Amino acid sequence: MTTKLAIIYYSSTGTNYQMAKWAKDEAEKQGAEVKLVRAPELAPMEAIEQNPAWKEHFEATKDVVPEAKVDDLEWADAFIISAPTRFGNVPAQIKQFFDMAGGLWAQGKLVNKVASAMSSAQNPHGGQEATILNIYTTMYHWGAIVVSPGYSDDAIFAAGGNPYGTSVSVDGEGNMKEDVEGAVRHQAKRTLEVATKLNQ
Ligand SMILES: Cc1cc2nc3c(=O)[nH]c(=O)nc-3n(C[C@H](O)[C@H](O)[C@H](O)COP(=O)(O)O)c2cc1C
User: Fold this and answer.
1) Ligand 1: which atom is nearest the Cα of residue 87?
2) Could you report the predicted ipTM of this complex, rounded to two decimals?
3) Domain Flavodoxin-like, which positions (predicted)?
4) What distances in angstroms separate CA 147 from CA 109, 116, 136, one per listed residue?
5) Could you tell me the distance, in angstroms and rounded to a whole number, from the CA of residue 107 to the centre of ligand 1?
6) Distance 91 CA to ligand 1 centre (A)
7) Axis crossing angle, helix 181-198 with helix 15-29, rounded to the nearest 10
8) What pLDDT score was predicted for residue 63?
């Protein structure tokens, strides 16, 4: 049976979108059926328009990447969730999406889904680890099986050594400071390997 992976991300300025796209590319190479979906934007246009990079990214993706639906959670065997830090926590857009899953959760339909998370911040210690752990808290409540990378591949060291999930820092221009593509690809592959074993 083909393993189904939902990659759910939120991104204001493109970093987490890029990580999500690397994960999608790798998962498809591994033979998974992949849905790449974005948490619906909640910010008002006045706020988005004040930040040219945010506006540009929003316009570039709004008609290209489908919005995440709770049905995607039911459909998937595994999730990869990628979100920038907001003061060490998840963006409201991701939290709102999680909060929409109450019905599925109450019916036990999220139990034994495989989950793994990625994050970014402006500073190297700006809250990436806390953000990933906050995502995992929700996953534990769902009864999902969290697959963290640990130190299971050399690519994790090259990316900065975050064992909870791939994370990156971004400079003032929005460029990624660490080389995380290999770690993202490894995380996607590992998540799928576990999900595929569970689905056998
Ligand atoms: C409301 C808000 C809070 C943020 N909090 C932090 C923070 O505490 N530390 C930090 O290093 N970066 C912080 N950032 C920077 C973002 O995490 C950064 O812009 C993001 O990781 C870039 O990812 P994206 O391109 O996918 O949007 C914050 C940004 C916003 C808008």
Assistant:
1) 8
2) 0.99
3) 5-192
4) 19, 5, 10
5) 34
6) 9
7) 50
8) 97
Ligand 1 is surrounded, with C-beta below 6 A, by 11-16, 84-87, 120-123, 126-127, 170, 174
For the CA of 84, the closest atom of ligand 1 is: 21
Could you state, in chain order, the average pLDDT of each consecutive group of 10 residues for the chain (200 residues)?
Answer: 97 98 98 98 98 97 98 98 98 98 98 98 98 98 98 97 98 94 98 94
pLDDT given at position 172: 86
Q: What is the pLDDT of residue 1?
A: 87
